[in-house]
Amino acid sequence: MLHLSKDLPFSVVTLNDWQLIKVSGADAAKYLQGQITINTSKLTPENFSFAVHCDAKGKVWSNWLLFQNGSDFFYIERKNVAEKQLTELKKYAVFSKVTIEQENQCGLLGFAGKESREKLSAYFPQLPTAEQTVVEKEGITLICLPKPTERFIIIADSGKLAQIKQDLAAQGAATADSNQWLLLDIEADYPIVDLPNTNEFLPQALSLQLVDAIHFDKGCYLGQEMIARAQYRGINKRALFKLTGSSTSLPVVGESLEMQLGENWRDSGTVLASLALTDKQIIVQAVLNNDVEEATVFRVKNNPDSLLHVTK
């Protein structure tokens, strides 16, 4: 059973739907600087940053949670886009001293829910905070995410993760799968870019500027011209939204919803993610026109009995 953040007990959450990628080598920072939307020179080992990898037209291949460990960089993205995204990121790597690969020696584990900090403090002597969002010690990296409520990602080898999971479960931690983390990301307005939606949207259509995933003052990078034009000339007319309501079926990722116009319905927007909260209640993350009104009524395509509204 999935829980909204306000109701979630302290839980160990598997993150099997996310992938850790490692970027290393003498030119790693320089190479990433020419590929992604943030200024890598501003990244420090003490804090992560959201970032975006786009094509030359500014369309998003994937969005990342990026952090640095020593001279190496790591990012977390949705697993189902990793192969395609890595192919695109490696296109120009032959000219640089850089290695880009899936990091399979380490795994990911999430912790969220009530009293997460208190529970984890008994296990880890130092936890990341809002001021220092990344802590690394003895081969374990901990990352603190502030929204929708404080939660944590732990990165370590599989043996250590198994032991941590076992120890905390013995202390009463609940267990949850990747869908629980997906729900928390939807609540937090962190966009979910899965394979059907790669190479479809400008970062601003996913509201990624609102989580500081685009540095508009940095130098040239792939897709910068279109991203800057969308920002300063008002070309982008779309944004990220959450919708909740009743439905006995889930909308398909990559398809549109239907918006009510008088007595008629019209295809509108694109579904990024959806989850069932109960047998009849669902939550949807979608890209819609940025001027949509809260009172607008939507429904799941081909399901006339469903009813959805934009929610904050």
UniProtKB/TrEMBL annotation:
Domain tRNA-modifying protein YgfZ-like beta-barrel: 236-302
Record GO biological process: iron-sulfur cluster assembly
Signal sequence segment: none
Database matches in Gene3D superfamilies: 2.40.30.160, 3.30.70.1630, Aminomethyltransferase beta-barrel domains
Annotated InterPro entries: GcvT/YgfZ_C, YgfZ/GCV_T_CS, YgfZ/GcvT, YgfZ_barrel
PANTHER family documented for this protein: TRANSFERASE CAF17, MITOCHONDRIAL-RELATED
Protein name: tRNA-modifying protein YgfZ
Source species: Zophobihabitans entericus
Lineage, uppermost ranks: Bacteria, Pseudomonadati, Pseudomonadota, Gammaproteobacteria, Orbales
